[in-house]
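Handout, section B. The chain below has 141 residues.
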Amino acid sequence: MAKKAKAKAKETTATSAMTRQELEEQVVSLANAGHSPSAIGIILRDEHAVKDFREETGRTIQSVLKENNLIGEIPEDLLNLIRRSVVLFNHMGKNKHDYSAKHGYELTVSKIRRLTKYYAKKKRIPQGWAYTPEQAALLVK
């Protein structure tokens, strides 16, 4: 199937009982409670019947967090890859001959480096930021 799975809406349609302002306040309160943007979206979907936050409010969760200075220093997808790389690196330290884990670690580090270039261009991370296993272990703690 070559098309997008979800058709683009021509206008915003409210399907939840909450108003736009209430939804944005809920996002801010969940972010203050320590939830990531993807976790906030899941909570809104499961507990508040918000099918699509962007469709409901006309904005993204990221933009609401950015407006309220609640966005993380490192983007969530990059941080998740760094967490995975730390787990694999520690596993390889204990299991020297696990070559499939080594290959998985190399693929993960490659993804981290590509995302780092992208976010450096978009100015989401500092220009000289580079991945090292030691720095990654400190970031994850």
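Note. The chain has seven helices and no strands. Compare this with the example in section A.
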